[in-house]
Design a protein that fits this description.
This protein is of the alpha+beta class. The chain has one domain. Helix content is 58%, strand content 12%.
């Protein structure tokens, strides 16, 4: 399985069952779906996963991004709070 790092997460080119994760990710980022992927891959003679496999892979990618974004927002909130506290930008315990 080939993987690369994106943020704090590892993104694998192939799922454990051999599905082409990056192809699904590409379709998600351009607004395409299973049919568009099937069309693209068929021009190269590359077999495509089933529609259910595509949907399952979309869920995995979506969950990975959800976790990544939640972590990023929490870090930004902690940093913002620290900057406010250091700058004394609060009144009676409330951040301004």
């Amino acid at each position: 399985m080939a993987c690369s790092s994106v943020g704090a997460s590892d993104v694998c080119i192939f799922n454990a069952d051999g599905r082409l994760t990056t192809a699904v990710w590409g379709q998600m980022s351009t607004g395409g779906g299973h049919s568009a992927l099937e069309e693209t891959m068929s021009t190269m003679g590359v077999p495509v996963m089933t529609k259910n496999g595509f949907i399952d892979t979309e869920r995995v990618i979506g969950e990975m991004w959800k976790q990544e974004l939640l972590q990023s927002m929490a870090e930004a909130g902690r940093e913002e709070r620290q900057l406010v506290m250091e700058g004394g930008e609060y009144h009676e315990g409330f951040l301004l």
